[in-house]
Amino acid sequence: MQPKTIPLASKRTSTWMALLLIVALLLQACAPAAPGGVESAAPEAAPAGPVVNALGKELPPDAAPLDQQVLIYPYSGWRTFTTIDFFQAVYERADALTDLLSDSLVRLDKNFQVNPGAATEWSVDESGLVWTFKLDPNLMWNDGTPVTADDYVATFRYGADPTHAWDFSWYYQGVIKNWTQAVNGEVPVEEIGVRAVDAHTLEFTTEMPAPYLPAMLLYSAPLQKKALETHGGLYNSNPATSVSSGPYKLVEWTKDQRLVYEINPDYKGTNIPYIQRLVVVAIGQPSQLLPAYEANEIDFVWGSGTLSPADLELIENDPELSAQYHPHYGDFRTYYFAFDVSKPPFDNLLVRQAFAHVLDRDTILPNIVKRQGIPAYSFLMPGFPASNSEAFKDTYPYDVEKAKQLLAEAGYPNGEGFPKLVMKLRAEGPTPVAVAQAYAAALKEHLGVEVEVSNMDFKSYMDELNAKPTQVQFTLISYGMDYLDPSNMLGVFLSGGRHPWSNAEYDRLVKEASSFTGDPAERTRMFQEAEKILVEDAAFVFVYHQTPGDLIKPFIKGPALEPDNNGVAAWHWPGFSTFSDLLSGVYITKDVANYRQPPQ
């Protein structure tokens, strides 16, 4: 059977950059002479040549010198931080700059389009099950060994190994052949559907047609097979054993204080950065982020739940800060309340419906969430494929009298006999905590239900959430996309997944739509029918779609921060990593001198 070749993304970005350079040179050549009376100090001297970094990339004319191409970025000192590698532990990277030491097979641009990364091309056979990815033969580890398909195979096997117990192993379950069975210890990891055809050809076999697989493989940055076997999965947590084939290399990691990357002069890939040095510093609590930013101790603040309502008010009332605040759609993240429907009291639909009717989005959004969210009536955010949010706006409107009636019908008039609840949160920032507290107060005031809000540390929460049976009875939690397809977002609620809720018809619709390769409108219809079941069963009460705003210093510029196809100029997800071309599209301008002292 002849493979069906998937067209590569166009090379418009590189062409556009080349055109910009040509235009800049033409403008420079046509610039008028200095006005009379202003003399050049050395009119006979030749103009300085362009500044080029160690990878041969020419800096723009307004760029700061190479020694000032430094980005100072915060990480969450209140979260567990053990690794900078996705396949080691997703939830132990503490919002730091990570995943910089190797290239994933694909990467995204600011319009969320999938482009070649380590893979130069890919194709799928006629069955729709076997995918072939051709690797860039130029890629090298900085110990002098080539990057090969064996590195990717070793990495995926490590992710599926039950002894590793990867905290993101669910991601490829039901997609890569035998992945679920390997994770469960039923087959050896050598039997998963990932194999090296030759040194530069990687093959994936899926359980069913998966047209979204290339997008899904955003999360495919490999570990080095040799280092993994010699030192274990944490080899990149120590500069002495760290090995890089990516745009940066690790040069320092002072635990609980900072880590430092420098540009990797041995990088042979195509995601070539401007910025020479990355300094990632610990911030103890979310409340310290804005003061650190104002004191020019950090260059960036991510707004995903970390900025408090007071912070947002301060930003809105400060013209300088407001100009540095860049709202965007982030990863299309939705915050929602979830219930353990496997046991009382939330196994009763009437109880869940009562809780849904007491959520007052019209008060919570403007007073707490402010610019960082829009009301959510379903899971898929407006703008995300198959989103149908407005259709569910009136499914469970705010209606206190209706909520009281439903709770009474469930056997708990005025909350009598209803057990006290603990609403558990996953190491959330000030805004989600305030939302949870507001909802808890409403449940007490209107339904007579006592709710304690407990903001747990990340690991303890995840351990309780993933326990079988789950130990999280009631929670406010969020989820954002990993790839731009409804199969990803709606797949979170499939039976056996994140939550104990299970619905056979929902499972059928999501699975059939996910592998459907026919009319896109029919695929959308199936996803929307599935989401209707999700909303109406009220196992989840959707609160708000996050529209985070990041604070970015004015001296950080570049094509990646220019408006996308929707006119949004922002630090787009998935951020500064090899998963995105943002890494190669930002630089530090000479204006940095107005904010911090040049290095001595």
TL;DR of this structure?
With 600 residues, the protein is of the alpha+beta class. The protein has 16 helices and 22 strands.
Q: Shape from CA axes?
A: globular
- Beta-strand percentage range: 15-25%
Tally of alpha and pi helices: 16
Strand order of the largest sheet: 15-19-14-18-16-17
| Largest sheet descriptor | 6 strands, mixed
Query: How many angstroms separate the termini?
Result: 63 Å
Nearest-angstrom radius of gyration? Answer: 26 Å
What is the arithmetic mean of pLDDT? 90
According to DSSP, the number of beta strands is 22
Structural class: alpha+beta
Written description of the protein model:
- The longest helix is centred in the first third of the chain and has 19 residues, at 12-30.
- This protein has 16 helices and 22 strands.
- It has helices at residues 12-30, 149-160, 179-183, 213-216, 225-231, 289-294, 309-317, 319-323, 349-357, 361-369, 400-409, 430-447, 458-466, 486-491, 504-515, 520-536, and strands at 4-6, 70-76, 106-108, 114-116, 119-124, 130-135, 194-198, 201-205, 248-254, 258-263, 277-283, 300-301, 325-327, 334-339, 373-375, 421-426, 451-456, 474-479, 540-546, 549-552, 556-557, 587-588.
Entry keywords:
600 residues; alpha+beta; 6-stranded mixed sheet; 5-stranded antiparallel sheet; 16 helices; 22 strands; 18% strand; disordered N terminus
Record the SSE blueprint:
Blueprint: E1 4-6, H1 12-30, E2 70-76, E3 106-108, E4 114-116, E5 119-124, E6 130-135, H2 149-160, H3 179-183, E7 194-198, E8 201-205, H4 213-216, H5 225-231, E9 248-254, E10 258-263, E11 277-283, H6 289-294, E12 300-301, H7 309-317, H8 319-323, E13 325-327, E14 334-339, H9 349-357, H10 361-369, E15 373-375, H11 400-409, E16 421-426, H12 430-447, E17 451-456, H13 458-466, E18 474-479, H14 486-491, H15 504-515, H16 520-536, E19 540-546, E20 549-552, E21 556-557, E22 587-588
Helix pairs in contact: 9-11, 15-16
